[in-house]
Design goal:
Layout: E1 2-5, H1 7-20, E2 26-32, E3 35-42, H2 58-70, E4 74-83, H3 91-95, E5 102-109, E6 112-121, E7 128-135
Parallel strand pairs: 1-3, 1-7, 4-5
Antiparallel strand pairs: 2-3, 2-4, 5-6, 6-7
Length: 137
């Protein structure tokens, strides 16, 4: 399993994480055939506080799907940041994940983006498998 990020997508996800620090950012990844060509920012509207949580509401999901359709792309997954935490999925991430999508997490430590990882939900929804990220130069 792998996902390919265009350089501008990698840069946009990292920048979004820095912009929202110390809160979590979130967004959708749009592309085709496993190649992400657009990072589409979504609002973090969680009621639990954006410092440690993010939420993609159904309306936001529909907006992301609409944007993908207008651009002739597919919704390939979602990204979010982990402020001052590793780029590994939490139990909360697991509990709220949907199958078939890639989940990119960028660790933002003291306001600086660090490690960026990608994950896919196992078929039995018990855990994530790490997904290789390749860069399209």
């Amino acid at each position: 399993m792998s996902i390919r990020l265009m350089p501008e997508v990698d840069a946009a996800i990292r920048a979004h994480g820095r912009e929202t620090f110390p809160h979590e950012c979130c967004g959708a990844m749009l592309g085709r055939d496993g190649v992400v060509s657009e990072a589409f920012k979504l609002p973090n509207t969680t009621g639990e506080g954006p410092r440690r949580r993010f939420l993609v509401r159904p309306d936001d999901y529909r907006v992301a799907e609409k944007r993908a359709g207008e651009a002739g792309l597919d919704l390939l997954g979602f990204y979010h940041s982990h402020p001052d935490h590793p780029a590994r999925p939490s139990q909360y991430d697991l509990d709220h994940a949907w199958p078939f999508f890639s989940y990119v997490i960028v660790s933002v430590m003291a306001g600086e983006d660090k490690l960026l990882t990608s994950w896919r939900l196992k078929d039995d929804r018990s855990a994530f498998d790490e997904e290789q990220i390749t860069k399209n130069e």
